[in-house]
Design a protein that fits this description.
With about 70 residues, this protein is mainly β. The termini are far apart.
């Protein structure tokens, strides 16, 4: 049986955006969850910061751009 991963667990993916002004985030960049916020695809977020370290799996042109991240630690 395959275990179920909880929200924000290592190996999960999420749509996130930067919490404050930042430069572009290209594919492969790693970021601290504390500097990110959960977001919808249209870049609206609830203000909750995930824990851990996340790898950008897409491209975020600015802090207002949400994209897919994967938790790596």
């Amino acid at each position: 049986e395959i275990g179920v991963l909880g929200v924000g667990s290592v190996g999960t993916i999420a749509t996130l955006k930067a919490a404050s002004s930042t430069a572009a985030t290209p594919v492969g960049t790693t970021v601290s969850g504390s500097s990110m916020r959960y977001s919808s695809a249209n870049s609206t977020g609830d203000g909750t910061a995930p824990s851990g370290t996340w790898r950008c799996m897409g491209y975020a042109a600015s802090r207002q751009t949400a994209t897919t991240y994967m938790r790596i630690s």
